[in-house]
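User: Okay, second chain of the day. Same drill as before: sequence in, structure tokens out.
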Amino acid sequence: MSRYPKADLSGVTLISIDDRQSKVLEEEWARPCEPNGTFDSFIDSLPDILAARDLRAFVERAVNAVRIGRPFVLMMGAHVVKVGLAPVICDLIERRVLSGVAMNSAAAIHDTESCLFGETSEDVAATITDGTFGMSRQTGEFINGVLRDAYHGSDREIGFGEALGERLMDSAAGRPSIMAACVRTGIPITVHAAIGTDIVHQQPSMSGEATGELSFRDFRLLCHELRDLGGGGVVMNVGSAVILPEVFLKALTVARNLGAQAFDFTTANFDMLQHYRPRVNVVTRPTQDGGRGFTFTGHHEIMVPLVAAMIRSRLQRDGISRPL
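Assistant: Same drill. Structure tokens below.
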């Protein structure tokens, strides 16, 4: 006999499963999707559980923002462009699904290179040793030149994103550009730079004065955009772990400080890894007084086309059309 006493399970009280509150029900299960089925049938085949349920709920809120004319703002980091998603973003812009786009200046660099040269992104490990990383002359001279020209030569107080978008629209060789698409459709495009973070800052053509002023103009533009978020607007952050979450929190504060009732809206963070700033500055703090925040973890090259297709499908299903 063991020297250690053990519990006697014969006295345990049992209950019926009929009286238990279960978290997963049969009607919520996934269904196999037929190979020749429609995209709508694929969406309907997803389980109504956890992230799949949340994704459906986010899409519903995004579509409703379009339906009622509230802002649907996309905030994005550079990786979104690096993985080839500019055509998908441009499609949402041209269909007037998005009402505004905010990006960090690294995304603006990749958008510029992709549009002008049909290529972007370099091997940092292979070029940092000899000091050639980020030294592509054409990239720096184009972007820094555009910013200097807009700062010194324009009386419209044009911002970073609009200045680049206008020049890319004139220079485009049939390749998509997010900034150019925004300018062409009249959708606000803002670029938010942190001096010293990007390759164009390390080149002799760089003007801190022009870069800082045009980025500040875009911050003020974003503050103005966020005024109308209340009552059903949507802000979607994709792949920016620091710059856009910080900028968004400050811009939202300015909008509220100036009297905007920017409450009761939806936010979502899409990223491969979940970081502190997007979680608190995008998902939780802005919606703590009303609204809802979502978190989705996955690769941008999969998640962005998926959510874009879901939004387009639901808009079509609901008979909500937007001009191309």
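The chain has a mean pLDDT of 94.

User: Thanks, on to the next one.
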